[in-house]
Amino acid sequence: MNEQEVEKLLQKISNQKMFGETEKAIANLHILNNEFPKDKKYLALLASAYFDADSIDVAEEFCTKALEIDHDYPEAFELKGLIAEKKGDNELAEKYYKESISKETPFKIGYLRLVLLYYKLERYEDVIKEAEYLLANFDTNRNEYTAEEQRKIFAQWLSFAYNRLYSSLIRTNKYEQAAEKINEYVAFRSNYVKDPYQFLSEDEILFKLYYALNNNQKMKEIEEKMLTFYMVPEGIVASMKKDAEQGYLESANPDNYTV
Amino acid sequence: MELAIAGGASGIFASATTAGTSMSWNPIGWIILAVVAIAAIWYFWDDICDFFSTVGNAIADAAKVVWEFVTAPPVTAPPPTVDEELPKPVLPPADIPIEAPITVPIAPPITVPQTKPRTRRREKDIYNVYDLHVGTPGLMRNYTFGAGFVNQFMLSGAIWKYGLTSFKSVYARYLVIFQLYHGDKDEYILNSLSSGKLLPFEWYLQNVNYATANAEEVSLIDTYMATHGKLPPGNTFRG
């Protein structure tokens, strides 16, 4: 099998995985694995495919095989972490995720997995630490990326990192930092977003944060935007203020709204 | 020899010419000139015959060429060797008068709607039915087909959308589709999924063919419509 054939088969496998034909993807990955038994990439891909097919034990087996070839293979550790999480063993998952980021090669998805795990476990200080590291050290010149690349990183990790970060900052009462991160997130997305109404959710939280911070100037600016740009009824804006007074910054109190 | 004869003859003509001035105006002179002419004709008879033969042939050949040019049939090009493979010629429309007004259609021609070709994929048991429901209460987009959306306050757990997919996770579905098509709605859903404003329910049905999945989705939407009087906010059509 030459390089071109491998590339073609990989493309096929990618499509099969994407469109739910996991069994076919697994069969093709086995062909690749038989051809290149010492290639860790195909073992990890097999593990990932079996994970998608809910065959957790087989997935783990292939992860172990990949790690036998390369003891420092971050993707295999990440997969082991996902398997552990699926089995409900969060401690073990954390151990594997930490293992994945302890290698020489920087592995951003390992940090993201930790952010998501800590958020799930409500360990907000840890979320803040890992998310800030992630945002400060990976894709650092992201504002200069092409729109295509920006969309890609938004969907792959950036939206999760920012959402979990500002949410954790709010939950630890760091409102000013939260507002700062939301503004950063909106500024980044403004680079490629065509729909001007895409930021209502973020502006809603910002409005409540500025209200809670008594930052009248900023609050008025967003209130004006709510009424004239997003066309939010005045009654709902008044309800948002009540939410902010009651501590519903990320969410809303249904009692304040006429549904 | 011929030159000598020619020289000789020219000498005779010269002497006759020079002599002519004295002899040409009396009968004896005429007789002498006639004798000389007869002698010359007799002497050069073969040359004279050749001359008139050549001229006659040339005139005849030229006349023949002209005649053949006028009377020959027109020259035809050889037929192509692949003639039988050529499409049959289409007859022109019968008798279109040139002066007839040509009507220019103002409206664009009606195009036949392009339907997505049905493939065998739809027969495979790879489809799953899901919903997206509200995770945290707040303003959510309420879409209407062809009319954009309005923002509407929605409570936790309220159904926002039903859908079907062959992807193995709802997030993967929107992640891939957003990266392929950059749709505003897909981005909205993706951002809402990552912030927890929307949550997926996976699955109502799993690993079924398209028809079964579609029937389930339509049934869920119809049930919603029966109780709410409208489509779910995230659905713009039924099924």
Please explain how this structure is put together:
The complex is a heterodimer of chains A (259) and B (239). Chain A folds into three domains: 98 residues, Tetratricopeptide repeat domain (Serine Threonine Protein Phosphatase 5, Tetratricopeptide repeat), CATH 1.25.40.10; 84 residues, no CATH class; 65 residues, no CATH class. The model of chain A has no long low-confidence stretch (mean pLDDT 93). The longest helix of chain A is centred in the middle third of the chain and has 25 residues. With 259 residues, chain A is an all-alpha fold. By secondary structure, chain B is α+β, with helices and mostly antiparallel strands. Chain B folds into two domains: 69 residues; 105 residues, no CATH class. In chain B, the strands form two sheets. In chain B, strands 4-1-5 form a three-stranded antiparallel sheet. In chain B, strands 2-3 form a two-stranded antiparallel ribbon. In chain B, helix 1 packs antiparallel against helix 2 and helix 4 runs antiparallel to helix 5. The longest helix of chain B is centred in the first third of the chain and has 27 residues. At the A-B interface, helix 9 and helix 11 of A face strand 3, helix 4 and helix 5 of B.
What oligomerization state is this entry in? heterodimer
What do we call the CATH homologous superfamily of the largest domain in chain A?
A: Tetratricopeptide repeat domain
Overall strand count of chain B: 5
The computed structural class of chain A is mainly alpha
Distance between termini of chain B?
119 Å
Rg from Cα of chain B: 54 Å
Give the end-to-end Cα distance of chain A, rounded to a whole number of Å: 63 Å
What is CATH's topology name of the largest domain in chain A?
Serine Threonine Protein Phosphatase 5, Tetratricopeptide repeat
Overall mean pLDDT of chain A: 93
